[in-house]
Structures are given as C-alpha cells and as structure tokens.
Amino acid sequence: MSNYTYILRCADDTLYCGWTNDLTARLAAHNSGKGAKYTRGRSPVTLVYSEIFPTQSEAMRREAQIKRLPRTQKQALIAAQNSGELLTVYDADGRACGERPRAVVHAQGLYHHVCHLWTIGIRDGIPGLWLQQRQFDRPLYPGGFDLSATGHIDPGETPETAMLREAREESGLILRPGDILPAGSYRQQYARGEDGGFDDELAFAFLTRMDGIPPFSPGCEVADMVFVALSDFADAHDAPHDLTARCMDGSTRTVPHESLCCLHQSEWEGVRSLLEQQLQ
C-alpha cells in the first residue's frame, strides 16, 4: 500500500500538511469538509506537493518534518517539485484539485484524465479497427499496440478538444467535432510496467468511422498503423492469442498478444455495442 505526505493550499492561501494512504479519497474528504478540522471551511483545497512512501511510519515522519518548516521553506519545497508538463489532478468525487507535474502524477498514481480514440471502419468487407504501433523509443510500452490515438487531457482542455488534438498529433487525422462520437468514460488503474509508476486515470472514449484506409500521417511517437478485425480483437479479451493485422500498404503482420496495451476490459465492455452498431 502506498502512503503519502502532502501539502495543500487552502482557499485562504494557507498551507496544510498531512499524510494518508489514499490521496485521491483524502482530497475528496478535505473538499467535503471532512478531511481535517483545519481545512474545514477553507475549501476548495489545491494539491501543491506530495511524496510517496512504502510505509505509514515514513509518511508520518515526513509529515512531522514538513510541519516544522517555516512557510518560506515549505514554499521552496513546493517550487522545487513544480517543473515540466502539468496535468490536472482530481479528487475521488471528480473535482479538480490543481495541476501537478506529469512525472509526479505517474510516479505517485495521482488521479487524472485521458482520452482514447477508437477509429473503426470496414476494409474490404471486414469490420474492424485501427491500432497504432508505438515507437520503439517510447518510455512506456515501446513498440506496443494501442488505440489509434490516446493522450492526456491538458489543463483547460475539454475531452473533445484534447481528442481532436491527439488524433492530429499522433495519427495525423484532421477531425472536426462532428466526426467523433462520445462513448463514455472509464476509470482505469494499472502499473506502468518498466518505468515503475502507476496510472489512475479516467479515460474519455470517442469513436470515429472511416472505411477503407484513412488518411493517416503518423507523428513522431507512432511507428505504424494497422487494421485488425473487430471479431479478432473481441476474442483477444476473452482468450489471449496473437492477432493478424493488415498494414496500410496491404501487407499482413502478426500482433503478439503481449504487445496489446489497449485491452482495458471495462472500456471494451462499454464501447463494444456502440462499435458494432456503427459498423452495421
């Protein structure tokens, strides 16, 4: 179990330090007036600093150390952690609780939002979907196969705006709002594998239908785009097996089951009927 030491900035600009073994739930408690006597009446709170520890005693010891620091040193601690790309983090009730560096969000499993694009269509009479192969230099799932476009929702973006941007940046698809169909949102929690982090995210799914071969122009993070039969993709959720895919040039290749990084069961169950309806 993870244990966190954290600093909040309250609505009156004061700082509060605490510890918890569930930071997402604890943020919701603070914002509901149940987290601590000090933060009651000082919401909404913003998460401005956090550390993660393997044991409760370590987190509590660090909390005590930080509480002894003067405000200037607490501010310096906060400033030292706030660098790089920022992502909005949320509490367990879905309220935004500030922006934290992407590296911290992933390393500590902070709750954030992402978007997923399911590009479906009929190719040579076969209903299916397009997957991207991630570049081999990507830090997470290098060379793995994912949905046609995925990515973080930046601060200030709507899920739809983020999806249109990610489709353009990753697969080269220039889509308009009317080209994508909302397909629900799905909580997903999983270890990040080789980089040692943990993802806790709410994925907003969207569909777009393009028959034949879409005008893909993959960006620098994507190595290739491949088409797999929907029935074969469905079977991969129930019984692990390799998939046969067709590249844009018509050649075939094998997609190893272990390289599929888009098999999220709850999302699949949520979008499956809509995919099948759109492909009728």
Description:
This protein is α+β, with helices and mostly antiparallel strands. The chain has 2 domains: 3-109, GIY-YIG endonuclease (3-Layer(aba) Sandwich); 112-278, Nucleoside Triphosphate Pyrophosphohydrolase (Alpha-Beta Complex). It has 7 helices and 14 strands. The strands form 3 sheets. Strands 6, 7, 8, 9, 10, 11, 12, 13 and 14 form a 9-stranded mixed sheet that branches. Strands 2-1-3 form a 3-stranded antiparallel sheet, sandwiched between helices. Strands 4-5 form a two-stranded antiparallel sheet. Strand 13 and strand 14 form a beta hairpin. The longest helix has 14 residues, at 265-278.
How is the main sheet built? Answer: 9 strands, mixed
The CATH C-level name of the largest domain is Alpha Beta
Low-confidence runs of at least 5 consecutive residues: none
Q: How many H/I helices?
A: 7
- Tertiary shape: elongated
Number of domains: 2
Order of helices and strands: EEHEHHEEHEEEEHEEEHEEH
C-alpha Rg, in Å?
A: 21 Å
N-to-C CA distance: 46 Å
Class inferred from helices and paired strands: alpha+beta
- Count the strands? 14
User: What percent of the residues sit in helical stretches (DSSP H or I)?
Assistant: 25-40%
What is the residue-mean pLDDT, rounded to a whole number? 95
CATH superfamily of the largest domain: Nucleoside Triphosphate Pyrophosphohydrolase
Describe the oligomeric state of these chains in a short phrase: single chain
How much of the sequence lies in strands comes to: 35-45%
CATH topology of the largest domain: Nucleoside Triphosphate Pyrophosphohydrolase
- Which architecture of the largest domain would the CATH scheme give at its second level? Alpha-Beta Complex
